[in-house]
Each structure stands twice: as C-alpha cells, then as structure tokens.
TrEMBL record:
Alphabetic keyword roster: Signal
Family that this chain belongs to: Belongs to the STIG1 family.
InterPro entries per record: Stig-like
Protein name listed in UniProt: Stigma-specific STIG1-like protein 1
Pfam families, sorted: Stig1
Length: 63
C-alpha cells in the first residue's frame, strides 16, 4: 500500500519504511524511544529533562 507517512513520528515506519517501534515506545525524530525513561523525550517527543533531573514514569523528577 502506497501512502505518505512522517518517518520522524510514525511508530510503524520510524526512521525508515517498515521499522516498527516495540510496545510502549514512540517514534521521536526517527528513533524509537521509551517516553517513560528517555530524558530527551520524557512523556512525549521533545520534552527534555534538565541536567538535575531524570525521566521517571514519563515525568521529569527533580532531586
């Protein structure tokens, strides 16, 4: 099937055609990431935690 997709955000074509993100991961900038723990994409794409925090359960925690 021919269709246009955004390979930067499509979880079934992440970064290239046919590359699927595994369960629980999202596609951000063409890479499959876990939004529950990824400090550059915490909770959603582009939500970056600052240097003093980490990403826990999709939220930046502050020590």
């Amino acid at each position: 099937m021919n269709k246009c997709v955004n390979m930067s955000t499509d979880i079934s074509n992440c970064g290239k055609c046919g590359k699927k993100c595994s369960y629980g991961k999202i596609c951000c900038q063409g890479k499959c990431v876990n939004p529950q723990t990824n400090e550059k994409h915490c909770g959603k794409c582009g939500n970056k935690c600052n240097a003093q925090s980490s990403c826990i359960y999709g939220m930046c925690s502050y020590a």
